[in-house]
Amino acid sequence: MFSSSVDTQWFPTCAVFDCDGVLLDSETVWGDIQEEIFAKYSVTPTAEIRQRLVGSAASDLVDAIVELTDLSAASDDEKQQFRAKVEHDVHESEANIIERGVTTIPGALDLIKKLSAVMPVAVASNSSSQLLTRKLTKFGHREFLTTWVGANDVESPKPAPDMYTEAIRRLGGDPARTFTVEDSAAGSQAARDSGAVTFIFTHDQENAPEGRGYFDSFTDPQFLATIDTWIDQLKAHQE
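^ that's the sequence the OP posted. Answer follows.
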């Protein structure tokens, strides 16, 4: 399944990828971690909060736990101590995510290799910068990237556009000529609001977030043919 509403004359001059759920099959593990934290603090998230946390940063999970906990009788010091404890538990769990069965998305690294041969490529992720560096190093993406931007590299994580704006700035790119790949509502909003052309990696296009294109496999022949066309157009433009 591949579809695109991008003009056939358009081509990118740089690319920025999300990490979790796009390069790495880690969203399920992150979801498990969220459920464990909810259980630990004996809180039950609403459907709206669960949806909000898809593709979220660790700080968003901390905010959700604090939001769901009745702290009305607590002093300001007690509230600060509680938040600090939640932050410690969340970040400790997030730091161990790689060891909990994270795997690569088939074909994603090959695409990064192909694009990096002709244009600068970055990753923009709601993971902390330290954890993102560990992920990209362990799974082999790092050597093909010009830069990567984590949640603590910018003022606001996704769904704010900050990290896409920063990644594109570091690449020396034009948002209107930037190809981005996302899978979550928060991430796609961030990419779109930066001005980038956003494609959605999804197995459920009907319920997928807004994008300029959709695909369910990095090895889809139509998708790869489009990538090859873009590369040919870019090379012709550079001659």
